[in-house]
């Protein structure tokens, strides 16, 4: 027992343990991928593009999340003007009064913004209990179709379905809800009749679901953004 205690004591003395090698890649040392900062040696003529040549449409913005004040909206429109972005499409308009409020917020600049409505699959249900989610009620698709008709009247120009549909929205038995589930037929029919295009994100790269190890082709991305 005494020899064990002595050995443990000496291990705590600075210098007794080998120093960990710096993973900076310098002087032939190993390089941690997140420290890799290559500088291109190929020198070719460059054209600095400061704005779009023709008026552009940005179809992927989240203004409900990003813009909290009228001043922020003013600043963003200046960025649009500087880059020749004619119109931005806000993807998170939601439904009902929330949709109207969002459209009203952006109406400070008429003709510069368009808004997509969203579908609320969970409703007031419990996050950890799919059996309580609104999408499993018998009249869900019919009610959602009616909400989309209302959204059209309020000014929505399309429907954005976020990627939790396909990745997180589940049936009561725990299986993922399918995009082509016949229960949603009334929803898609209503979108067609109303002329509301559907922008839908249903999945992520297959590498996101594989082990995060040396064989994963998206290791660097997953390492930087583990969520």
Rg over CA atoms, rounded to whole Å, is: 26 Å
Q: Uncertain regions: pLDDT < 50 for 5+ in a row?
A: 3-19
Element-level helix/strand string? HEHHEHEHEHHEH
Taking the alpha carbons of the first and last residues, their distance comes to: 46 Å
Largest sheet entry: 5 strands, parallel
Structural shape: flat
By DSSP, the count of extended strands is 5
Tally the helices: what do you get? 8
Tally of discrete structural domains: 2
**Average predicted local confidence, pLDDT:** 89
Strand order of the largest sheet: 1-2-3-4-5
> What class, by secondary structure content?
alpha/beta
Please state roughly what percent of the residues sit in beta strands, choosing from under 5%, 5-15%, 15-25%, 25-35%, 35-45% or over 45%: 5-15%
Q: What level of helicity do the residues show?
A: 25-40%
Describe the structure.
- There is one protein chain.
- This protein is an alpha/beta fold.
- The protein has two domains: about 50-120, no CATH class; about 120-225, no CATH class.
- It contains eight helices and five strands, in the order H-E-H-H-E-H-E-H-E-H-H-E-H.
- It has helices at about 1-10, 65, 70-80, 95-105, 140-155, 165, 185-195, 220-225, and strands at about 55-60, 85-90, 115-120, 160, 200.
- A five-stranded parallel sheet has the order 1-2-3-4-5.
- Strand 2, helix 4 (about 95-105) and strand 3 form a beta-alpha-beta unit.
- Helix 4 packs parallel to helix 5.
- The model is unreliable at about 5-20 (pLDDT under 50).
């Amino acid at each position: 027992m005494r020899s064990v205690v002595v050995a443990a004591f000496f291990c705590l003395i600075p210098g007794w343990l080998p120093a960990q090698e710096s993973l900076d890649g310098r002087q032939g040392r190993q390089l941690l991928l997140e420290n890799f900062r290559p500088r291109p040696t190929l020198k070719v003529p460059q054209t600095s593009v400061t704005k779009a040549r023709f008026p552009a449409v940005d179809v992927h913005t989240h203004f409900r999340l990003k813009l909290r004040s009228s001043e922020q909206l003013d600043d963003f429109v200046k960025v649009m003007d500087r880059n020749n972005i004619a119109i931005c499409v806000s993807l998170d308009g939601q439904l009902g009064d929330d949709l109207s409020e969002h459209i009203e917020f952006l109406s400070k600049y008429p003709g510069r913004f368009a808004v997509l409505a969203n579908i609320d699959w969970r409703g007031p249900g419990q996050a950890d209990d799919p059996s309580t989610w609104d999408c499993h009620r018998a009249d869900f698709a019919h009610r959602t179709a009616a909400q989309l008709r209302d959204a059209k009247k309020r000014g929505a120009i399309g429907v954005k379905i976020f990627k939790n549909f396909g990745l997180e929205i589940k049936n009561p038995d725990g299986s993922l809800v399918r995009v082509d589930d016949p229960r949603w037929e009334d929803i898609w029919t209503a979108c067609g009749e109303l002329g509301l295009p559907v922008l839908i994100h249903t999945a992520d790269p297959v590498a996101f679901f594989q082990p995060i190890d040396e064989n994963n082709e998206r290791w660097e991305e997953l390492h930087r953004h583990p969520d």
